[in-house]
Amino acid sequence: MSDNRPARYLSETDLKRYVPVHVVWEITLACDLKCLHCGSRAGHRRPDELNTRECLEVIDSLAALGTREITLIGGEAYLRKDWTQLIRAIHDHGMYCAIQTGGRNLTPAKMQAAVDAGLNGVGVSLDGLAPLHDAVRNVPGSFDKAVDTLRRAKQSGLAVSVNTQIGAATLPDLPALMDTIIELGATHWQIQLTVAMGNAVDHPELLLQPSQLLEVMPLLARLYREGVDRGLLMNVGNNIGYYGPYEHLWRGFGDERVHWSGCAAGQTVLALEADGTVKGCPSLATVGFSGGNVRNMNLHDIWHYSEGMHFGRLRGVEDLWGYCRSCYYNDVCRGGCTWTSHSLLGKPGNNPYCHYRALDLEKQGLRERIVKIEDAPQASFAVGRFDLITERIDTGEKVSSVSDSGQVIKLAWANQGQKSPDEGRIPVQLALCRGCLQYIYPHESTCPHCQADVAAAEAEHQANRTRQQAIMNTLTGLLGIAPSTLM
């Protein structure tokens, strides 16, 4: 990059030209953990994983497409013998290279070899304190191994981060887990919700109920603020959202102009499975979302011409259903995370894991609950089926459910079969109501959420900032220190 912006920073050119800025690449499905929530059911290698020559050709192709960052995952990336050779090739092309790991057997020698090859960063998974983490990862001692890996990565000069999946049992651990992460020297903490895919379908007790977002989101907001004060930046994953009173806080890391603007799969994100299958997102199901295989078609053509990659480019409001179809944010949000909604209900575009939605239903005395009705096949990235029940909070009486609706659940979108637009969509830029700190469309003069006069609320906000700045200037003058500016 020519400036100090992160490799994943998206420019208008990236969006318009469909540049696969960030690539997540499963280079092997082999794994040394047995995670109960693993969507890919990692463990054994795929029968026909790409060889070294094929992988190097993929790296050349990604560089030609304009990729700036590649994250290597598994399974466990370090269980592939040529993994450092791939890191070196990525580095030689000037692309940022990171790995995501559970860290169980990332020995000092393996880590040093990766550093020498040009590895830039390591993300280590910690899904709670030791008892919960070891239970979910299904290997005793895995927490201590992960912590040791994180500590050594920091000492090696790598950029270090922690990834945490939030499930039904995670919340009590989060404050103390954040303390641990800060003590270990990590600067970034990425969080995401556990999703109903693969092994997680076999263990539905791990999944949050949608109504629990009313508890989750305020806690995350508090931890976000505390983390910033202590040098830790919380990165919210693509299935943490959407448009509630904390959206302005974390999506843009303090830049209120940045908000959720729809699934980026197949638009600025590309993923590969170890056998060469190409998808728009690493978490999506293989069946229904594969754009082809690099052994049968070159990567450039898969990215630009394969229909399986283009659902995100073609999807519009007409593809939404259920609550999302009539939601105030439908045109900009477009149903939130594709992976989350498809894995749960068999079709994207109706996502109950939404803070705005949970708050709105609560005002009506309602909540949503998921119930498993179909197991997932014993295959990588397999999905089962869940029912989504809407019920009264006070009595638990069922009001409606997806299974009772008679709706045919089919993985399809209205513009399927059509050519994707020549230019990518530039997301709608929403404004922030200062009365309730929720996003609104720029044309609104009265906030639809809190009925505030938008202009008056903004004027009051600016006046308060001016008063606060004057107080700060007075105090810094009295203390004899340089004046500061409010963010």
Question: How would you describe this structure to a colleague?
Answer:
33% of the residues lie in helices and 15% in strands. With 487 residues, it is an alpha/beta fold. Among the domains are: 10-308, Aldolase class I (TIM Barrel, Alpha-Beta Barrel); 443-477, no CATH class. It has a ten-stranded mixed β-sheet with strand order 7-6-5-4-3-2-1-8-9-10. A three-stranded antiparallel β-sheet has the order 11-12-13. A two-stranded antiparallel sheet has the order 14-15. Helix 2 runs parallel beside helix 3 (83-92) and helix 3 (83-92) runs parallel beside helix 4. It is globular. The model has no long low-confidence stretch (mean pLDDT 93).
Short structural summary:
With 487 residues, the protein is of the alpha/beta class. It has helices spanning 12-17, 52-65, 83-92, 108-117, 130-137, 142-155, 174-183, 199-202, 213-229, 247-250, 299-305, 311-314, 330-333, 338-345, 355-363, 402-405, 454-479; strands spanning 22-26, 69-73, 96-101, 121-125, 159-166, 188-193, 233-236, 269-272, 277-279, 290-293, 366-374, 385-392, 398-401, 431-432, 439-440. α2 packs parallel to α3 (83-92) and α3 (83-92) runs parallel beside α4 (108-117).
